[in-house]
Structures are given as structure tokens and as C-alpha cells.
Model the fold of this input.
Amino acid sequence: SIMATKKYTLYKAEGEARPPCAFFASPQGCKNGDNCKFSHVIPGKASAPSPAPAPTCTPVPMSSTHSVSSSDISSESEDEALPTPRMTPKTNTPKKKQTPVKAVSVEDPFAAPGVMPNGKPSKKAATDMNNATTPKSEGKKKKRKRDATKSDPFANPKNSMMALVAAPPATATVGHHQQQAAPAPEAQIPQTPTNTPKPKKKKVQKEEHQQQSMSPFRTLNLPIASFALPGIDSGSGVTPKAKPSTPSKPTKPKIPVPQSTPEGLKWQKAVLDTRANPKYATTYDFEKIKAAHEAQTCGSASDWIKARPFGAWCQNNPHAIAIDCEMCETKCPVTGAHDHKALCRLSVVNAVNPEDVLIDTLVKPDWPVVNYRSFVNGIKKDHLESVQFTLQHAQAFLMALCSEETVIVGHALHNDLVALKMEHHCNADSAFLFQVKDEEHATCSLKDLAFSVLKREMPDVHDSVNDARVAMFCLEEGYVKTNGETTPIPRTFVKKNRIGSDQLFVHRIPRGCTQEHIQNMLLAHTAIQVKEVPEIEFNSETGKTTVVFPSADHAKLAFRTIDSEEKPDKSGRMTKRVYLRSGGYVSVRQMVARKRKP
Done:
């Protein structure tokens, strides 16, 4: 049975087809106005009086066993079809009035105000409802109505829709005055059904979607191989049991060896001996070169290329090539950075068939050229004006030609690879495979090498096709055929007024030091005004430049005047130190080695 409370009894007026509205004669009046389906007249009167007189609807006490009659129907049930004023108890089911106090979680944004998770109103809401116009027995009736809907499998969806049809006219809510307890038209069917059940369903669907979207990668059983650099905590939680080796060994990838082709096997020893040279580790340190370029804003590491592994894709390509490049100096118009090895000509020759020139082209630098170095390469400004071939084209060609096992033959190849921005380690470098006679740490020139091995004189102006072929011929004759037993190369072409005799090489220059600082330093230590201080070329944290004096005598006098101990470097050239205020020093070195006494 359902607990019943006092209800308004509707009386049918004589001669009226519609029952009178119970709220029309109340102090609050009917809020539906002309849209109300009930008659706005006081029983027994022809016209509707002012709401001042007492209402004709009298509360009738009902026992707990009394069934709900047609008098329970209010004007808020305007959307139901009511053929007669007398309704059966099922038409006005008790659960139709429970939506405002439905039990929902506190965190749910759609929960009714003042409702706690257990379905009971909070103390404040209970106090407000007890003080409302509805009698005190109304709360108990609602609680029993909620319990009655538990056994119905469709109770929740039906309750959410039907409770709005016959919502109680005097239900109090937290934060609202008692006189505002009568439901407003805004809380009727057009709004509440779309705001109450659907958002809850949408929230559940969103949570399920998040779980499904997270599961594919978090629950896969992948063969993860944990990795951590020595001395660096990557946060993986995996610590190798073995004692870590030196930091350089695990970080360096395995360097490929040419072993898959006959050409590679022919040059394999030359490649390995090139790597064995003490200078190779620093000269071919591409990671350091990339970092220096980024520091000088001459490009980024992403501009560099690296050949793919050997495979079927390159079986028909030459597996040994000879390369030579010509370079110029460019300047970035935005940052002002200088690139002293900007590619301006590329020549590649087939090492199996030297007559086969695979490519020979001028290359348009990315930045404006500030020094063409025409006295070295013969290239002038008008030669490059209409050139469309760029560094990116050269890199694309080499990526299609070379695998990581392709042997590149040349002289001082690190300069060519830097100009190409190409990382490669299968190199046969003639500058590293021959030594200068009586100068253990010196590097022989291609001109001396060609004259000593091939008995051939080289022109003063470089031709990259010729230089590539000559370097390859020198290696074949002086190294491959002798199985690596080379003969020291004497310095043949030594002029009386040797190049560099009027210059001093200044290196270990700290960052922040300018050309003006170098000029003032030499003037203070030598009392000699220099002719020119070229722009300092910084590599990593230090830089270098070649200072030009008015004559060779001025350069010699300046070096002798520096008050510092004189020591030879590895090449046999004399060096002095000029100390800095910070405690470091700058090295000043002569460009020409002194003749040794017999």
C-alpha cells in the first residue's frame, strides 16, 4: 500500500465539461494560464474571481490504505490524455512524483539539489521540505513510492519520464523559498527528459571509450628491450647487472666494413688502415662536426645524410667510387654565420672504370657567396648564377648511389664529406695512408703524392674530376699493389717564398673573443700592426683564424717578440702561448716549419 497524504479534491462545476483547476483559486494561482486544460472557475460561480478568496479545493485526509483517486490529478499533468476527471490509481502512479528527489551520487552534476548518495535528502533539504506547504506525511509517501519501483525492470527509464507528467505541486528544493515550490513550466517534459537520463548515459559511454582507447598500447605484451646509458638514469627502473663499460662504447654504432662485393674486398684493408690512423677519431668525428655546425648556426643534424645498408637495391651500382669536391665560403644573410666549406662543385668517378664519370656538376650554395676561392677552384660568380643544382640534389644522388659499404676513395675525404653533409665510414683516404718524409705527423699534399707515386705534376688550379682520379691512382699504385707498404713522400714543391710565411695561425680562441680582440692582443704583445684578421671560425667551444702581416719578416718578428716559451707542435711548427685573464691561453703558431739541421 502507498502512504497517502492530503490532496486537493476537484469538484466538477455544473454545466461545465471540464473540471475546475485546483490551483486557479489558490493564493499562488495557476501558472499555465490559458493553456491549462482545467476550467479556471470557482465551483458554483460563472466567472473566475480574484485569487483573494479562499480556494474551493479543500484538503481531504487520506489513510495509509486509501487508494489514489482522480482527485490526485493536478494541473501539472497537462500532457496526459485525461478523458474523465475520475482516474484509476494506475494513471497517477506514485513514482511519477519522485524525479526531484531521486537518489544519485553527490559527484553527479545532474543529481537533484540536496540529495545524498543513499537516496535521502540532506538535513537542510529535509528541514526545508518539512517547512514547505506540503504536509509532513508527503516525505514518507515519496520514500515508499521509491521502494515500490525497485521491482520494476523498467522503473528507472519510466520513472524519469513519467514523474514529470504528474510532479507534486508543492515539492521544496534546497536554496528555493517555499512559495516557489510549485513546479514551473520550464521543469516540465520539454527540458528535463533530455537533461536527466541522457547525460548519465553519455558519461558512461565516455568512460568506456577512454578505457577502450587506452587498452591497445598499455595491455600489449611486447618484447620490450630495456636500455639505459651508463651514468644516466632514464627512469625505466631496469638496472643492468653487469658493470657498465666506458660511455663511448655503447653509444657508438657498429661501423660497417666493405665485405659484400669484390670491389669492397679489394679496398677493405685501405678502409681499415684509414680508420687506424690516430687522426681518424677526431677528423671523422661527425657527431662533433654536426654539433659545431649547430652551434655556429650553419645548419642542423637533420641536414645530414647517411647511406642505407647494403642490399639488393644497390647490386647494380658501383661499389667503389672516387670523389672530390670544390668549396667556397658563404654567409647566412639572417644570422651572419659563415660556412667555410660550402659545396660549389661535385665530381664522382667510378673506381672500377675511371673513365666513367658518374657525375660532374656545379652546385649552387644555399647562402650568398662571400669568397669564391677562384684561385684554387677556378669557379667565379658568373659560373654559378644560372646553376639550379643544389646540395639537396647532390645528397639525393649519393643516397641512390651509395650503400653503407660503398668505398669512397679520395684525398682528405673528411673535407668533401663535410661539404656534402654526409656521414660515411667506408673511406680510403690517401692523406691518412701516406706519410711525409722526415715529418711524422705532417700530412702530404696531393701534389707531392702524385709527383712521388705517379711521377705526375698537378696543375695549380684544382680540377675535381682530375683530383678524384689522381687520388685513386696513387692509392692503387702506392698502396693496393704494395699491400699497404707505402714509401714516405718527400716535399717536392717548396717555393722560396712559401705560402703562409707572412701569417701566424692563432687557435684555441675562446667564444666571445672577436677579431678586434686578436688584433689588439698582438699589438700589445708585439708592437706590430697586423694587416688582416679574418673572421674567427669556431668549432665547438674554441675557434681559430690565420692572421696576415704586412710581410714574412713582420710575421717572424711578431712571433719572436711574444714573451712566452717556444715549443714545436706535432707537425714541427713552433708554437707560443698567450695567456688569458681567465687562466686559459691562446696558441700562436708559425705557418712554416723550420728546416732541420743535418
About this structure: Residues 122 and 503 are 94 Å apart (CA to CA).
